[in-house]
Each structure stands twice: as C-alpha cells, then as structure tokens.
Please model this.
Amino acid sequence: MKKIIPLTLCAILAACGGTSVVDLNDKEEVAAMQQVMELEYRDWTKTAENMTNSMLESHALDKIQKPVLVVSNITNDTAQRFDTDILIKKIHTTLMKSGKVQISTNFPGEDTASNAIRKLRTDNEYDQSTIAKEKTLIAPNLSLSGKMLQRNLKLESGWFSSVDTRVEYYLQLTLTDLKTGLSIWEDEQPIIKEGTHAPTW
Model:
C-alpha cells in the first residue's frame, strides 16, 4: 500500500501539469498561447513575414538579373541561445514561394553535398556519368546578412503591477549586390515585450 500512494500522487501531479499541444493551423489557438519574454514561434513568423514583404515590395530583387541569394551571416547578439536558422528558413521559404529569387545552398558553410559529390570525379566506384560536371554550379549574386539585437529597459513597477522590464529585440537585415558590393535593401524590425523574467546576460 505504501508503494501505491506515491505512484498515485505522481499521477495526480502529472495530470495537473496541463501540458498541451498547440495546433499551429488554428489561429485562435495560436493567439491564445501564453505570452513569454523570450523570442518564440509568433515572433519568428511575423518578423520573417514582415521582412520578406519589405524586401519584395521594395522591388530590389527586380533590379538584379537572375537573382541568386545566399545567406552570409545572421548573428545572434541576444541573451538567448537559439539557432538563427529558425528565422533564415522562414525567410528562404517565403522568398522561394514568391518566385522572385533562387536560393544558393552550395556555397561554403551551406549544403556540403554539392561540393562533396564533385570530389568523387576520380573515384572509380561511381558511375562518372552521374557525377556533376565542372562549371555547373551557379554562384550567388546577392548576399543577405544581419543581426538580432536585444536591449533591456527597467520600468517603474506600480504597487499592484508585476511588470518591471521592457525587452526590445531588433532584427536588422541587409541585402548586398555581390557584383558591386552595394546595399540594395535594408530594414529593421522591432519586437517589443514587457513583463517579468526578462532574458539577461
């Protein structure tokens, strides 16, 4: 009987945890997600959408003949540890669907398979007619770079208020014409949050 009580108690506590899976296709369910001070799904989605729309509406891509884009570097300069590929992938997807630009994944630091397959040209174990020939790779002519910044501001907490910190996130992106080295589009998207337990360094 002594063994049953702890097991029952654990089951009750687990049931009280309230863990649930959010259906991302349900707008009401997404909107009802608990707010957090860290960057999360809604932040990535909205920011990526705003940035790509800004780029497309500027018609910067229309000025480049056969635009091919590579992401050179997106730096995370916040107190949170996250992979910037979360944001990059959403931007890639939106740009690809627009039909305005092609995405290069064979550049150093990107997809390594394109370069690895070319090293098999002297390997007799492979049918050489299936190996990519020389001068078939398409070099990018556009580079996307940027940074995610964070700024914490202390607020005056009211007697009945628990809000004591404002966290300002800024995503800055620059699109560079690799032929000229000139910026052809730039934008900054802020994400502002207020609450407790702000991410700090």
Confidence is low (pLDDT under 50) at residues 1-5, 9-15. The longest helix spans residues 41-57. Strands lie at 68-77, 102-103, 142-154, 165-177, 182-195. The CA atoms of residues 84 and 113 lie 21 Å apart.
